[in-house]
Design brief:
- It contains 15 helices and no strands.
- With 276 residues, it is mainly α.
- The chain has a domain of 54 residues.
- The chain starts with a helix and ends in a 9-residue tail after the last helix.
Length: 276
């Protein structure tokens, strides 16, 4: 087991990697806070950066995407700014960042998405990055076509896209489901600029941020496994977000993931969760 000093040094190295080489002087997204709680820098460097961000089992790119998603949903401006910078520093493209934040509109709310996009634009301007995504959503599209496109994309992920409701949905639930098939799945998940695995990671992170442990989370985990994410990757998403959403939230997600892993469809298809 690594000593606390070894964890601290490893944490400094990760801070440096995330911050573009500024790790040994970079004091986090709110440096003034350490004046009130001096031990916080040491503790967070050891536990978060030296013990979580540095774990195997989930690529650094996906750790960054998941953390950015949660920061955007939580409307935490300093964290959003820091996570956008981190994402750029680990090789996530500006276009990918924008696509992640467009997903946030559906999983965390339009205000959260626009708030994060505004902060992201400031970071891009600070780095002299001129980025505008091309317009790919055509208003001439027939609603039925958009709906069918959404259902088809959704079925790539979850075969029974109408299985969320244990009982017959109310008219309001039905109308909402139609809108989500059209716009979430037909207009967002089908967009270029962010691959399917990245979208799945961000969707799982969004469910963690919202504290959703019902059928929606279970089905998202099932879809992730069908698509090819490993058990370890799914559990590491929860590990990554422990210090961003809270230990109880992350641990509850792990519990429901384990129930999915033990279900008949997946019980015999994968090895036990372990570090890779």
């Amino acid at each position: 087991m690594a000593s606390l000093e070894e964890r601290f040094q490893k944490g400094l190295e990760m801070r440096a990697r995330l911050a573009g080489g500024q790790g040994r002087i970079y004091r986090g997204s709110v440096p003034s806070a350490y004046e009130l709680a001096p031990d916080m820098y040491r503790i967070s460097t050891e536990s978060l950066y030296g013990s979580i961000w540095s774990r195997p089992g989930l690529d650094l790119k996906y750790r960054s995407m998941a953390t950015l998603t949660v920061s955007a949903i939580q409307l935490t401006a300093p964290q959003i700014r820091a996570q956008v910078r981190n994402a750029l520093n680990v090789g996530i493209t500006p276009e990918e960042i924008i696509e992640i934040l467009m997903m946030v509109a559906f999983y965390g709310g339009v205000p959260a998405a626009y708030n994060a996009l505004g902060i992201t634009k400031e970071v891009f301007e600070d780095r002299d990055l001129q980025v505008t995504l091309p317009e790919t959503f055509h208003p001439s599209l027939e609603p039925d076509t958009l709906y069918e496109r959404g259902v088809a994309k959704h079925r790539e992920f979850i075969p029974d896209v109408f299985g969320y409701h244990p009982t017959e949905p109310t008219p309001e639930e039905h109308d909402l489901d139609v809108l989500m098939q059209e716009y979430l799945w037909g207009a967002i998940w089908t967009r270029p600029g962010l691959d399917m695995k990245s979208r799945i990671v961000c969707a799982l992170a969004a469910l963690l941020a919202g504290g959703q442990y019902d059928l929606f989370t279970r089905r998202m985990i099932e879809g992730a496994l069908r698509y090819g994410l490993t058990r370890t990757e799914i559990m590491e998403i929860a590990m990554q977000l422990v210090f961003y959403v809270g230990i109880l939230t992350a641990r509850s997600f792990m519990h429901i993931a384990n129930t999915v892993f033990r279900s008949p469809e997946f019980a015999s298809t994968a090895a036990p969760v372990r570090g890779v």
